[in-house]
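ugh ok so i messed up the first submission bc i forgot one of the chains. this is the corrected input, ALL of the components this time, i swear. 889 residues overall. if the numbers dont match what u have on ur side tell me asap before i send this to the collaborators (the ones from the other lab, u know who)
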Amino acid sequence: MAAPQLLKPSGWQLVTGLVAILVIVPLSVLLLAWLDPAWDIWQHLQQTMLSLLLLNSLKLLLGVGTGTLLLGVSLAWLTGACDFPGRKLFSWALLLPLAMPTYVLAFVFLGLFDFSGPVQTFLRGWLGSGFRLPDIRSAWGVILVMSLALYPYVYLLARNAFRTQGKRGLEAAEILGCSPLRGFFRVVFPMARPWIAGGMTLVLMETMADFGAVSIFNYDTFTTAIYKAWFGFFSLPAAAQLSSVLVLLVFVFIIAEQRVKSRMRYTQSRLTVRAERIVLHGWPRYLACCYALAVLLIAFLLPTLQLFAWTLDIFREEFDQRYLQLLGHSLGLGVAAALLISTVALLLAYAGRRHRDRLTGFLVRIATLGYALPGTVLAVGIFIPLAGLDNMLIDLSRAQFGIEMPPLLQGTIVIMLLAYMIRFMAAGFKPIDSAMHRVTGNIDEASRLMGLRGPKLLFRVHLPMLRGGIFTALTLTFVDVMKEMPITLMTRPFGWDTLAVKIFELTSEGEWERAALPALTLLLTGLIPIILLMRGAEK
Amino acid sequence: MKTVFIIIKMGEEKTMYNLRKTVLLVILIFLTVPLGQALAAELVVYSARKEHLIKPLFEAYKKETGTEITFVTDKAGPLLQRLKAEGKNTRADLLITVDAGNLWHAANEGLLLPVTSATLGNNVPEHLRDPQSRWFGLSLRARTIVYSTERVNPQELSTYESLGDAHWNNRLLLRTSKKVYNQSLVAMLIAEHGEKLTEQLVRSWVANLAAPPFSNDTKVMEAIVAGQGDVGIVNTYYFGRLLRKNPDLKLALYWPNQQSGGVHVNVSGAGVTTHGKNRAEAIKFLEWLSSEKAQNLYADANLEYPVNPRVANNPEVDAWGHFQQSQFNLSRAGELQTAAIRLMDRAGYR
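and heres the new structure output, hopefully the right one now
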């Protein structure tokens, strides 16, 4: 069975292979760095701070993993399967922190809660100058900020699962004699596992790749060591070698996730009928409301207010016509990349569904690896082969036709979009792949019996079923691309700036208050699709 | 059932139509952008100095000479890699970056061309340019001591080295050792004292810290104002910015090492790329940047000091006082940067 498939690959496998190659090229540029092992730097790190870095990274992964799991799942279950005052509002409002770049949240939090910030200054004035809060520039501070910034990934995916489950899961457990709490952990949670796992994978990959938030807190992780090797020791090979450890780690992680998932099959009856909600009564309904409000307040409203306050101070001198142009570029890139990535993610998910062989599964996994790499490192991995290709084309045209041509590929938007695809494929793939678990084989068979085949099957049966997943993929990728900095910086055409580039320009000079205007614009723009898509998915 | 299908179908058609429109639009953008950029440029600049600081200069130069300048900004590290990857087909004529370490490294990688120009030699003091003339400092910033005017008497201060004395125990605040400015400062100390003494010195700083190192200079100063510590080491322009925002700032600058070595300075600067296509034009622009006409525009935008000795400081900057600067050639900071980072790692300076 496997042999003929390998000899004559299907269209699905070709697409998968092609995307996997796109990701493999930059990754192998990084792996090739091992040809010139920078042992002296490894040795130096090992002697000085490697154990601390690993410990810090581990703490961060565990902390942010637990934080996002608790926040994301609890909120998703409350708004997805239950009913309480303000539920409708919270169900989309709780997604808003998604539009807030982690580095912005980190900066605002530090501004508010550090020793010199207004909160502690106020407390010292009130309780005496000896008063000290625990230092926010520490492991728990970073974990708090990153959990608040990243929980929407888990929330968004898990909510898709809980929404269709409604109270049926708990009811079934009750009939089998479980208490509600036991029922939640034995039935409700396990039934949503692929979605939760998908969201958690995104969170953990993002945590590993994060450089912005940890450097604002001066919290040393493996990623900060990568940048130190590059910008400090000027050794790109050492940085690439350190990054390859991250790639390996993520790969093991993804395989493990796949193992967990592939042991189970998920089907859901009565899909078209909206599941009934658990209506909360008495004090739990207010508790639920207060909890959701508290998270929203801390993760979104408070930092947004701070950004507004800063923007008011500088609006007059900073705002000009150029902002409309920056906004247009950011929006255009976001929309185009989201469409591209989601379409390709859909193809990959289908390929994975059609071909359950090892090779296809492996290629699909590889295609999503770009998400876990620190952005700047991946950007270089993409740029080196790209420039090489351009140089080849230039030399070729010179030798063959005697024509001096400028670089063709660099600084074109096609390349930018492909680079975004390499980086953010996981954000498009995870939600669609989770949704795909519901499109089981017997649905196809039933549809065929009704005479639906080929494109009709796709458009009339599959796409409506995948709708939630596709909306999620579009939202995540759009927002991610809007916030992205290093690839945009490296591959954009001359003089073609975006909001994220503007934020970079100001923040890298330490001018955070001035960066509030582009940050706020980015935030507000990111909100529009989130709200629209959320409404669309609810219908 | 049938109506449901029709609705789905209509939705499909609408999305398909939108999709087609989007695809067309995207293709249009692809085609127009690279063509435009290929035609316009007379001079191409890669800059790690940020747009709002350099664009006014490009505009002024265009006004004076008519030369159109196209540029792209990024961090220094990625820009160097970009130049390297593009090799002889690069479109960049000039590289502008901050910190001598970065400039030294670009030169060391063979990305910058030696330039013989009497104008540049005349305008840029010797210790602020590459001994082999591959890069030239264009603006100068001092990395100096800042202190709380409420809790510190300037007579208590003397040198960078003395910040390690027990007198400053639990009173010193520093920025992270990952910032290149601190790496250059420690590199200068290594050049002066050798590794062994410098490591002891850095250890004594770390022992005096009142809080873990901060991610930027502004945070260091805000923490001193708030009373978390009493002294710190910062770049002058960050102090200037904070002072502009709050003229009653309870902080002042102190110029250390006036009897020995001088205040540590660093530059932002530029070099002509090895494979640039408009070499003569690039040198002309570089000369213009170091000239009396451009120096104030270049330095004042960021509250820095001009490198050209014939150009007066901005009055705002001049009010912070005058100082003896270190004559140590900045290319040494690049050479010793790696040693400095290793030393700080060993000393536990995060």
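quick check: The beta strands of chain A are 82-83, 278-279. that seems consistent at least. The first helix of chain A runs from residue 2 to 7.
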